[in-house]
Write a structure and sequence with these properties.
heterodimer, A: mainly alpha, globular, B: 112 residues, alpha+beta, Alpha-Beta Plaits, 4-stranded antiparallel beta sheet, two-stranded antiparallel sheet, 22% helix
């Protein structure tokens, strides 16, 4: 027999053997229904009884069941946290794709360094400021050593336990699992700013912004919303504003914070050279790789499957399926809207704006994702698709704020829209009345479902109060993130060169800031546009030729 | 001998190549170039903002032929590259002194 024939014969024999054997194979539990029963907790493998069937045994059983439920929630929290971590990859692709090739290495380096430096800042102080004094989280086991908050009366202002994950007995599995999930959220707010300050910010200026984001800007507003601070308590104070300000997964806490900080930085840095013509009309610098932008958008969408459903802090809350589907619906509705609307406005569907539309839907559904039905999620996504297109045009043409990747439009404007959407569309089905939200034992309900349901006076008051709380939250969030970033960088720019020299900007920040280019083996196209350096650059702009050129001249002389 | 330089629309390249092959032209050099003529570039829209593409992508062909063939080849390129619309490109003919085939050292018409 030839080798081939032997091979065929052996395959046939193996196949027949498998079929025959399978007839005598006793199926253990192919459906999975018999796996995981009482015996798993009462009998030690080998047949010996582990627990006597007495009250003591029942108590132990209950303990083990509780431990299992918390274990499931731990796994859920960690896995969704890892998904959020992966969003960093998506964002790196997105913003690098939407900028020019000469800056690609700089963009990637900012994404990498924002991650590591803000993580350490958040570990040192940010986490303690944000979550130093929270109510115990039932899904993660209840007891919490994070019990210190600095407050004015009942209005919490800043947390004070958990510095370096050590202070106040916070060396604890529950606290540290919670830290992982929260630190990746902070990273999201941290990297949002890159999109708006791209192609001109200096690396040093950027690192200062990241430390400020991880240590101060994000955690303190985050404390007011999620750490038991005063915005979350608006429902309990004298005003009884609904359930207090509600932001399920962070349209406001994460996205609007990043977006408004980005707005302040983009205004202080000024537009890129050549962005505005002498008559004030905006010029466009097409991104160098729209493929990257699309990949980034899809990776971000995938990561958002951790961002929103993970914010239940537990898989035992089965609302997670609705949260996930709402998120996908809003993302798709936002993308379709932006695609159709740019086609109607500009004659062709714009690829990068379709990406922005998808992200706009995701950002907007992030606050209301647990509180609305799928139909409202689509409505929220559609409106977000319009908001982002108009916000990009407004910033570009009216406000003349240069936002290369649309970060302010997507995260700032649509984040604000997401906060308001809770007060408008939350349908009163979640959470359960017995559980409540922010300590108010009522489901979260917005104005429009209250109207449609014909709610009586107290219900209408609750819904209207919710909308008012959301508006207050949006205003406070804007004031904090924009205000602090603005004040900080008006000071910092006196001491640090926060913008690269014009020559570096024109030659590319890869070469000027790092002496390395992202694409050394590719011939980069000569720029189709020529640039004249403005006579007056913003304060904090470096001067002088790029370092590499200096080196060459010194060699020759 | 003559050097024929033709700057044409990129999507007309295949038809021009066919025309040159039909005339048994022995060699062509192609360069991707960008430029503008009377049409002065064009405008595109990116994220709602218009921007000028000052230099439009074109293809440049260098063909060296015998004096006797120059007009015939030039006509063939012009015919094949024409769309009748703005931006069809330019063609010019330059006299050249000599050509050397590097492998053998042959010079003049033998080297074509």
């Amino acid at each position: 027999m030839t080798t081939f024939q032997k091979l065929v014969a052996m395959t046939v024999i193996t196949f027949i053997a498998l079929v025959v054997v399978s007839q005598y194979n006793h199926h253990a539990d192919p459906t999975g229904t018999k796996t995981g029963v009482a015996a798993d907790q009462t009998v030690i493998p080998g047949g010996q009884a582990k627990v006597p069937l007495s009250q003591v045994g029942l108590n132990q059983l209950a303990n083990e069941t509780g431990h299992l439920a918390v274990s499931i929630n731990f796994v859920w929290l960690l896995i969704t946290g890892f998904l959020v971590l992966f969003m960093q990859v998506g964002f790196a692709f997105l913003v690098t794709g939407l900028t020019r090739a000469k800056n690609a290495g700089h963009m990637m380096m900012m994404n990498l360094s924002s991650f590591v430096i803000a993580l350490l800042a958040y570990y040192a102080v940010g986490f303690a400021f944000q979550f130093g004094g929270i109510a115990p989280i039932a899904n993660l086991g209840g007891a919490s050593p994070l019990n210190g908050i600095f407050a004015h009366g009942t209005s919490g202002l800043i947390g004070i336990r958990g510095f370096f994950l050590q202070s106040g007995n916070t060396y604890d599995v529950g606290v540290i699992a919670f830290f992982l999930f929260q630190v990746v959220f902070m990273e999201t707010a941290g990297y949002i700013i890159i999109g708006a300050i791209a192609e001109r910010v200096s690396f040093a200026g950027f690192l200062i912004a990241e430390i400020a984001m991880g240590a101060i800007i994000y955690p303190i507003y985050g404390n007011w919303m999620w750490g038991g601070g005063f915005l979350s308590q608006l429902g309990k104070g004298p005003l009884h504003l609904g359930n207090g300000a509600v932001d399920f997964a962070g349209s406001g806490v994460v996205h609007a914070t990043g977006g408004w900080a980005a707005l302040a930085l983009a205004m202080i840095l000024g537009p890129r050279i050549g962005k505005y013509r002498e008559d004030g009309t905006p010029n466009a610098f097409p991104g160098h790789n729209l493929g990257y932008a699309v990949i980034g958008t899809l990776v971000l969408t995938f990561g958002w499957m951790g961002f929103n459903p993970g914010s239940t802090f537990g898989a035992t809350d089965l609302r997670i399926s609705i949260v996930a589907v709402n998120t996908l619906l809003a993302a798709s509705a936002g993308a379709v809207t932006a695609m159709a609307w740019t086609n109607a406005k500009w004659g062709k569907p714009d690829i990068s704006m379709t990406c922005n539309g998808m992200l706009a839907g995701l950002v907007a559904i992030t606050a209301p994702c647990a509180f609305v039905s799928p139909a409202w999620a689509v409505v929220i996504g559609i409106i977000a698709g319009f908001v982002v297109v108009y916000a990009v045009e407004f910033l570009d043409k009216r406000a003349k704020i240069d936002d290369p990747c649309g970060a302010i439009a997507v995260h700032g404007f649509c984040g604000l829209w997401g906060l308001l959407a809770v007060g408008l569309f939350a349908d009163g089905t979640y959470p359960d009345k017995a559980v409540g939200w922010n300590g108010v034992l009522q489901p979260v309900k917005g104005v429009i479902p209250a109207l449609l349901d014909g709610d009586k006076l107290s219900g209408a008051h609750h819904a209207l109060g919710q909308l008012v709380a959301q508006i207050i939250d949006g205003g406070v969030g804007f004031g904090w993130a924009f205000g602090v970033t603005w004040v900080l960088f008006m000071v910092v720019r006196r001491f640090v060169k926060i913008r690269v020299a014009p020559e570096v900007e024109i030659a590319g920040t890869d070469e000027g800031e790092f002496g390395q280019v992202c694409y050394p083996d590719f011939v980069l196209r000569t720029e189709t546009q020529t640039f004249r350096i403005p006579e007056k650059m913003p304060i904090g702009t470096a001067t002088g030729p790029p370092p590499a050129q200096q080196a060459v001249t010194s060699e020759r002389t | 001998m003559k050097l024929i330089v033709a700057i044409i629309k990129p999507f007309k390249l295949e038809e021009v190549t066919d025309a040159l092959r039909a005339l048994d032209v022995s060699g062509v050099t192609l360069t991707e170039v960008r430029g503008y003529g009377r049409q002065r570039g064009h405008t595109e829209v990116y994220r709602g903002a218009e921007y000028e593409v000052d230099y439009v992508p074109k293809v440049k062909l260098d063909v060296i032929v015998d004096d006797a063939d120059a007009q015939k080849v030039a006509n063939a390129i012009v015919e094949a590259a024409r769309t009748g619309k703005i931006g069809d490109g330019k063609l010019w003919i330059v006299p050249i002194e000599t050509v050397v085939r590097i492998r053998t050292g042959e010079a003049g018409s033998d080297a074509l």
